[in-house]
Design a protein that fits this description.
Number of helices: 7
Strand content: 25-35%
Shape: elongated
Distance between the termini: 37 Å
Structural class: alpha/beta
Order of helices and strands: HEHHEHEEEEHEHEEEH
Low-confidence stretches: none
Oligomer: single chain
Length: about 220
């Protein structure tokens, strides 16, 4: 009836009903903040349908600009896009992933590795188009350490890179929260100079939002 229709419309306007599509890069999905924020929103707005899409950073920015997703968690966008806002949520150190038995691990109970020590290693990185910001940061940090990294393989996702390290095909650098992916055959090592390389986590969203549930989600994440 009319009263129910009016009530439904007002609930949609308050962000209590509707659908929200959220994009996640694979490394952002591994940070506990991301899952906690989505769970908190589900508690506050249980009748809003939440759709999740795992995408790379480039795809996320395209879909935000096209209005296909309403919010996203990603690491570091290289270029600002008109109509898309990026809010820094937190920053965390990067860690080195080495295969078990690597010479840099010998005699170390708490492995710590300098970037310079990786000068002659084969690097495995997430493809530049998918994660341009982090790719550029790693190259710049290596150059600052006095070498140009030998990039042996590029992979679509960080998890793929860790798997290749486990297979003995090279080394990689990932945000510290990726250590939750406990792959047999790998060792996560702290960076001797972590200040040169860090992994920010951003919330991205369209500056012109026409979805009350998404507006509510973004406010909750910022809080």
């Amino acid at each position: 009836n009319l009263q129910q229709s009016v009530e439904k419309a007002s609930r949609i306007a308050r962000g209590e009903l509707g659908t929200i599509s959220i994009g996640l890069t694979s490394s952002a999905a591994f940070h506990p903040f991301t899952t906690e924020a989505i769970r908190a929103f589900r508690t506050v707005c249980p009748e809003v349908a939440v759709e999740l899409a795992e995408l790379n950073a480039a795809e996320i920015i395209e879909r935000l600009a096209a209005g296909q997703i309403q919010a996203a968690f990603l690491r570091k966008p290289l270029d600002a896009r008109a109509g898309v806002a990026f809010d820094l949520l937190l920053d965390e150190p990067m860690v080195v992933v080495l295969p078990v038995g690597h010479s840099l691990l010998k005699g170390k109970k708490r492995p710590q590795v300098s970037l310079k020590a990786l000068a002659h290693e084969d690097f495995i990185l997430v493809r530049r188009p998918g994660a341009p910001g982090m790719y550029a940061d790693i190259l710049a940090a290596c150059r600052q350490a006095g070498f140009v990294p030998r990039i042996a393989r590029e992979v679509p996702r960080m998890v793929s890179g860790i798997n290749l390290v486990a297979a003995g095909l090279g080394v990689t650098l990932v945000p510290a929260s990726m250590q939750r992916y406990d792959q047999v055959g790998t060792v996560y090592c702290t960076l001797a100079d972590p200040s040169k390389l860090s992994a920010p986590l951003h919330l991205a969203y369209p500056t012109a939002l026409h979805n009350s549930a998404a507006t509510r989600f973004i406010q909750l994440v910022k809080e």
